[in-house]
Amino acid sequence: MRITGTGHASMRIDTGAGSILCDPWVNPAFFASWFPFPDNSLLDWETLGDVDYLYVSHLHRDHFDAAHLTQFVNKKATVLLPEYPTSQLEDELRALGFTSFLRTKSNQVHELDGGLKVMIQALISPTDGPIGDSSLWVEHDGIRVLNQNDARPSDLSVFAELGHVHAHMLQFSGAIWYPMVYELPNAAKTAFGKQKRDRQFDRTWRYIDDLKADHVFPIAGPPCFLDDDLWQFNDIHGDEGNIFPDQSVFMSEYAKVGGTNGVVLLPGSVSELTMAGAEAPSSVETTHPTDVDEFFANKTAHLEEMRERKAPVIAAEKASWRHPEIDVLGALKKRIEPLLEESIYMAKGVGGPVRFDLVSYDGTSVESIVVDFPGKQVRPYADEKVRYRFRTQRELIEHLIYIDEGDWVNSLFLSCRFSAARIGQYNEFVYAFFKCLSEERLQYAEGWYDEHEKEVDAEDTQFGDWTVQRRCPHLKADLSRFGIVDGNVLTCQLHGWKFDLPSGRCLTSVGHKIRAEKHETEKTEA
């Protein structure tokens, strides 16, 4: 089996029974904020895109690149489609010209021509990607690989049960806006960023240890930031709180925990996986287009060259954002108020008004608009107290309205082109709602929360003297595997959520109370 690195989470898998192109991303994403690094735009995409199968893990724009799919990927390729609750991924691929789809069943092995086997595990909670994320397992001629990309399954046992995995591709770097955009003192940002960076690595080590593959490939990040306004987010400034460490940092940190089987894929790197025998570990031989250590040693120079080369691309994108003819308040009322009327669980979960400060083109004035969840309306800000506030350029909201964007998380928020402030804990319902600015998504998310709120989790697990419900109240991770207790605080390492065991209160977000009981140790008389 041959694995060709094509950048970020993208790769081409070649077997004797066909080829699979995964998540090809080349063009800038999220308001021209994210670019693939190392640069993959100079690869021979005409050849790479001539494949038998296409796998797009989910609709995040650093995985779903519509322009690139249209121009370079063979439309006769069969799409390996995850089993998602909405049809948006299939609809968007059909709109690009793809007509052949294998609608997989989650966690079910599908045998294709020539003995090629695939299985896709779809994650379907409202907080998984843009309503969905997935992982791809592939087997041919005795070799098995798992492309986990940036999915966060609560359990990898479904893959391990199919046989020993020889190559494991997974995310290790950040893919979010926290804590960089928050209006916090620099020392606090650094501290929170370091916590997140450490948690990212801890989660990665846990996944690696669970699967115990012969070879580990760090993929799905980090992006690079080439706009001058975002340049500080690149991990080149010696900031221990930067959440975007690159593959060379992964290899260094992995070595500290005893990892010796890491394989870096640059765009154009080729890894050949072979079996030495039924009981022997697989071997891998990798060739690179350039020396890997030397490349990352000169990372800043590579980024500066990319910044100069991509500057016209960013300028052209920025020129398209302004739509002064749009009445922002009126358009948001028309779009959001009907959804607020239908929202029960998310509106209750947000529990208050959310404020957007829109800075004018010239930066001299600000229009403040409130999405009032209890009042079920969008209106001008009325000097009331809000727990969440976002500040961004007016043209970005105009553009979201102009393109009828139904997912502000997969556009505005991931762009990092905003600042945020909040009072109190993180509230997942705020971001879940702004992923769901369409009837289909809103109805699915409301139904999901309704179903899970009614669930009664009867299974328990033990942490010393504590008996705790086995499944995390957040996204049902198995706490017997992902939970750690320090004093009276339990942390779920899958997403870093913390719970106060004596009270059951979630320390990370509103709601999500955990069931826990402490058993006093019996004392025996001497």
From TrEMBL:
One of its GO terms (cellular component) is cytoplasm. Keywords: 2Fe-2S, Iron, Iron-sulfur, Metal-binding. One of its GO terms (molecular function) is monooxygenase activity. The keyword Lipoprotein does not apply. Gene3D superfamilies: Ribonuclease Z/Hydroxyacylglutathione hydrolase-like (3.60.15.10), Rieske [2Fe-2S] iron-sulphur domain (2.102.10.10). Residues 468-526 form the Rieske domain. Pfam families: Rieske (PF00355), SCP2_Rv3818 (PF25451). Coiled coil: none annotated. InterPro entries: RibonucZ/Hydroxyglut_hydro (IPR036866), Rieske_2Fe-2S (IPR017941), Rieske_2Fe-2S_sf (IPR036922), SCP2_Rv3818 (IPR057330). This is Iron-sulfur cluster-binding protein, RIESKE family.
